[in-house]
Amino acid sequence: MKASKITFGINYIDTGSPLHKLNGITKFALFIAWTTVVLTTFDLRLIVGLLTTGLLLLKLSAIPFRIYKPLLIATGGVLLLNAFFIYLLAPGQGTEYLGSETVLLTLPYGYSITQETIFYLITVTLKYFSTFPIALVFVFTTHPTEFAASLNKLGVPYKISYAVSLTLRYLPEIKKDFVNIMHAQQARGIELSKKAPFFERVKSIVRILGPLIFSSLDKADDISNAMTLRGFGRHDKRTWYSLKPIRRVDVACLVFIFIVVALAITKRVVEEQLFWYPF
Length: 279
Prior knowledge:
By secondary structure, the protein is mostly helical. It contains 11 helices and 2 strands; from the N terminus they run H-H-H-H-H-E-E-H-H-H-H-H-H.
């Protein structure tokens, strides 16, 4: 039996792109600003612009598409399922928010598909999805230790900075544990490939989550013991080997980010309508 190969990952990959050369603080500010803008708008034009820009930045990072393709597909699938349940539980929400009703199809049990509902579900789904590419850009292009050093330089306690570094470093370890457990399950005769029915594969993957959680807890305990033995936290300050200075290009990016966020918040405050609806 041939073991399934997992080609995706969620970890820092140095490709030497312009995004890799930016300071970690700049990319973190971009991520926070991006999320802020997304959370404060339901304007589909702005959301599509953010999503397009995020995908372009992901391409600019020079990370191979095969690395994050499964992540994009999985996230898209979850968001489509989310849209389905939104419609199932609140079929008239789109009509309520947009203030009009154009029935396209009448369904049994009192359900109907309206133009407003479709527009609302598309807006909400793209709204959530637009934050995902920039999150991948941040993880793929930011070295954990360099980012922790930059946070500490800004005044964040080094214990918190180091915890952030450990979190970013631990993401690829979770993937390795998942692959190892999956291979162990396959060796026991559990089919996880495309040969098995979809729901059977879902059940098999759910079985992996239990051992994965316990494995993560064991590793967290080992890391905690190792840090204690090395005297972590004994002193109030520490030096960083991977500290990267903030350059002019970082300052320019931070100023641009601040201006964009200010304009987006101003736009939201000035506009009377929550949703942009052209029909």
